[in-house]
Amino acid sequence: QVQLIESGGGLVQPGDSLRLSCAASAHIYSNYVMAWFRRAPGKDREFVAGITWSSITWRSGTTYYADSMKGRFIISGDNAKNTISLQMNNLHPEDTAVYYCAFKSETSWVDAKSEGEFNFWGTGTLVTVSS
Fold this sequence. Notes:
Elements: E1 4-7, E2 10-12, E3 18-24, E4 32-39, E5 45-53, E6 62-65, E7 73-78, E8 83-88, E9 97-104, E10 120-121, E11 125-129
Parallel strand pairs: 2-11
Antiparallel strand pairs: 1-3, 3-8, 4-5, 4-9, 5-6, 7-8, 9-10, 9-11
């Protein structure tokens, strides 16, 4: 079992920036994916961004995003520390959501973006964007 703890959420105004962090407990996996999802009020949980760690050199550390997040959000991670971050810039009221950290205990040749592909989840951190 992998435990995930998110932090960094809060109340901000439109146009502000915020940085979220996720710390994972120690694990035995050498190939895995960590990602951010979010659930806005009244909506289903959706993929935000992911990062793949792999023994395949060219692929390890590769990041990928939902199309709507490209340009404003940046995911980064530290493989040795089992942590990832989400830098969110120019936030909109529509970004208001509970943001979740997720962990997939294996990699594939296709970037994982579906909720069902991930094995472990954090409890979420709330981001509220309002003036």
